[in-house]
Design a protein that fits this description.
heterodimer; A: about 300 residues; alpha/beta; four-stranded antiparallel sheet; 11 helices; B: about 270 residues
């Protein structure tokens, strides 16, 4: 379990992270989302003790990480930035990291096999592709069989096969009762991997909620109706208080109403329905809706021509 | 959400000082450039010592400068000082430059054991190698000079052994200063500039441009303090006594080490 308590980090006058508190629970994959510059990486580095908080604290399984007598078994991490000396082979890198607490060759070979680097384990990390470096980073994170995993953009540079592999791996690791905390820019990937979400924007927590709730509470939910009597039925729906989002000769998109109510209204008004579908938004659109005003670096698209 | 929490297979593996020593030793020996640098330094000490002894023999020291047999034999060491100072700077800064420091400080969140063990491993490799190289160069150089009929110093002569051992510690000391400065500055180029420029060249430059009333102060700079215990004499003109010089040199080391500890402990990685 990771407990972040009133954490603040300021750089000069800029508050990168502004008094945030949240808890990451064991047993589920928790996703950490936020636009660029929202404070994700800074928060993760403070959790790892690499950056010192200006105020507040982080507890890792109810204690400070710096006081851990078995750090690698408590917490494994992969940061977006490379953390390997490229002059060294993957095998020797892992051996050096493991040696700090007596983790030896056997386990090193085990994690190398787990991430699929057997054939290149004696090659200098300088000759690694982005995907191979990422796998080495994951191997380093898993070396101590950690109870808590913190991964910043773990799927960066992985091929589709690798992405599927890490998704299933993280789910399995969470199932075993580990705490998994990961950030990713890839919404579709996050939607498939994480069960719980923490959303950060401009250094503040915008949401701390289950994936399911996050998506379903979005205003982007609507019901899609296909009917030959679209025009008449749209009037009925509007009269009942629903919001017509779009309408043409034989279809209607309507929000603020459940599909069950739509069905009831259709029966009552003797409207023929050919199709009635609940459309849930993607994580991406739910995220965009939440963080619209929170993005630090906007790409302006013809917005100025008003 | 499941209620069970996972317990690591390695929960009973404890982070230990000795473990960090082992880790730093693995890091040292698995980087080929480290091994090559140590070998080159060894060859430079012995090779340049022998070269200087034989070249000067034929020239008869005709460049006007009077160089004692001891000076000629230890020529290679002065090159080695430069190499080891650069080596130490790179060795310390590389940890940051490569990003390895994030792995190292994640595995050892208290941080200081990494610095201390890095210095221990560096010393354990450099010191014996340097002392052996210095002794070998001494015997080889003496043999070459003796062949020419020059009266050569013996190890048992006063101050010779002290000066040779002093050189060993001086080379190591500058390497360690480089290592600390490397970890402070985090960038190899800056670390090398500060160590070589500041510690080795600056004192000579200041000596040339400052009025002589300042020379008493300059004696306390690391390189001048080092000169006092690497010269085979009871006392040297314009320098501290060998003992005082040794203490001053050590004080510099301790000071820079302490500064590095404080900065490493506090600074964001």
């Amino acid at each position: 379990m990771i407990q972040v308590k009133e954490l603040t980090k300021t750089y000069g006058a800029t508050k990168a992270v502004d008094n945030i508190s949240f808890t990451v629970q064991p047993g589920v994959v928790t996703g950490f989302l936020g636009p660029n510059g929202a404070g994700k990486s800074t928060t993760m580095r403070m959790i790892l003790g690499l950056d010192k908080p200006t105020r507040g604290e982080v507890l890792i399984n109810n204690a400070h990480y710096v006081d851990s007598d078995s750090p690698l078994s408590l917490l494994g991490s992969l940061l977006e930035a490379k953390s390997v000396d490229k002059g060294r082979s993957a095998y020797n890198h892992l051996l050096a990291v493991g040696a700090t607490m007596g983790i030896g060759k056997k386990r090193v070979n085990e994690v190398i096999e787990l991430v699929g680097l057997e054939s290149v384990k004696n090659r200098n990390a300088a000759k690694f592709s982005l995907g191979m470096s990422q796998r080495l980073g994951i191997a380093t994170a898993l070396l101590g069989d950690p109870e808590i995993l913190i991964l910043d953009e773990p799927v960066n540079g992985l091929d589709p096969d690798g992405i599927l592999w890490i998704r299933n791996l993280l789910k399995d690791l969470a199932q075993e009762g580990r705490t998994i905390f990961l950030s990713s820019h890839l919404m579709s990937e996050m939607e498939l991997t994480a069960e719980h979400l923490i959303v950060i924007g401009k250094g503040q927590i915008l949401a701390d909620i289950s994936m399911h709730q996050f998506i379903s509470r979005s205003s982007q939910n609507y019901v899609q109706i296909v009917t030959p009597q679209a025009k008449a039925f749209a009037g009925v729906l509007a009269a009942s208080g629903a919001v017509i989002r779009a309408q043409n000769a034989n279809s209607i998109e309507v929000a603020d109403i459940t599909s069950a109510t739509v069905g009831d209204l259709a029966l009552k008004n003797q409207v023929v329905l050919h199709q009635l579908t609940d459309i849930a938004p993607s994580l991406e659109s739910a995220f965009m809706e939440l963080t619209e005003d929170q993005v630090s670096f906007h790409g302006h698209v013809a917005e100025d021509k008003k | 959400m499941s209620n069970k929490t996972y317990t690591s297979r390695f929960r009973d593996n404890k982070l230990s000082f000795f473990g960090v020593t082992k880790s730093e030793w693995i890091k040292f020996r698995t980087s080929r450039s480290n091994l090559v640098t140590v070998a080159i330094t060894f060859l430079v000490i012995v090779g340049f010592g022998a070269l200087s002894a034989s070249v000067n023999r034929h020239r008869g020291g005709g460049d006007g400068e009077i160089r004692t047999p001891f000076d000629r034999i230890t020529t290679g060491i002065n090159f080695a000082i430069l190499i080891v100072a650069v080596f130490g700077s790179r060795f310390g800064a590389r940890e940051y430059d490569s990003g390895m420091i994030r792995s190292s400080f994640s595995a050892v969140p208290r941080r200081l054991p990494v610095l201390i063990n890095k210095a221990i491993v560096f010393s354990a490799v450099i010191l014996p190698k340097m002392i052996i190289a210095i002794l070998v160069s001494f015997y080889v150089g003496c043999a070459i000079l003796k062949h020419d009929g020059t009266v050569v110093p013996k190890l048992s002569d006063p101050f010779i052994l002290r000066a040779l051992m002093g050189y060993g510690f001086y080379v190591l000391g500058l390497g360690l200063l480089g290592l600390f400065i490397g970890m402070l500055t985090r960038q190899p180029a800056i670390a090398i500039g500060v160590t070589v420029g500041g510690v080795i060249f600056l004192p000579a430059l200041l000596g040339a441009i400052l009025p002589s009333s300042w020379h008493k102060v300059l004696e306390y700079l690391p390189s001048n303090a080092g000169g006092s215990f690497t010269t085979p004499a009871a006392n040297t003109v314009n320098a501290l006594s060998p003992t005082a010089g040794g203490v001053v040199f050590l004080a510099w080391m301790v000071g820079v080490f302490a500064l590095t500890c404080v900065v490493l402990k506090r600074r964001d990685v």
